Amino acid sequence: MMDGNIHLLRSYRATLVPEGTPADQLEVKADEGTLPTIQVKARNTARAEAAAHHLTGRPIFRIERIEEQVAA
């Protein structure tokens, strides 16, 4: 049921866990940027994580909010 309120969607980057990736290598690979990522829009981090998992079927290692740049 919709509550009638308008909710701002924010952009998030979800870092996915590829099949067969050892758990002890996830942090290093994520920091190197070698794990796959997708971008989703959601109201909050929890919804972004759920959406990324729903879209990919993969476990999510990390969710980061992408700050939008405001032109000066």
Report on this model:
This protein has helices at residues 26-32, 45-56, and strands at 10-16, 37-42, 60-66. A three-stranded antiparallel beta sheet has the order 2-1-3, with helices on one face. Helices cover 26% and strands 28% of the residues. It has 72 residues and is α+β, with helices and mostly antiparallel strands. It contains two helices and three strands, in the order E-H-E-H-E.
What's the order of the H and E elements? EHEHE
What amount of the residues lies in strands? 25-35%
Mean pLDDT: 92
* Helix segment tally: 2
**3D shape:** flat
Please give the radius of gyration in angstroms.
Answer: 14 Å
Strand order of the largest sheet: 2-1-3
Helix content range: 25-40%
N-to-C CA distance: 39 Å
Largest sheet: 3 strands, antiparallel
Number of strands: 3
Which regions contain 5 or more consecutive residues with pLDDT less than 50?
A: none
Q: Structural class, please?
A: alpha+beta
Short précis:
By secondary structure, this protein is α+β, with helices and mostly antiparallel strands.
Q: What descriptors fit this protein?
A:
single chain, 72 residues, alpha+beta, 2 helices, flat
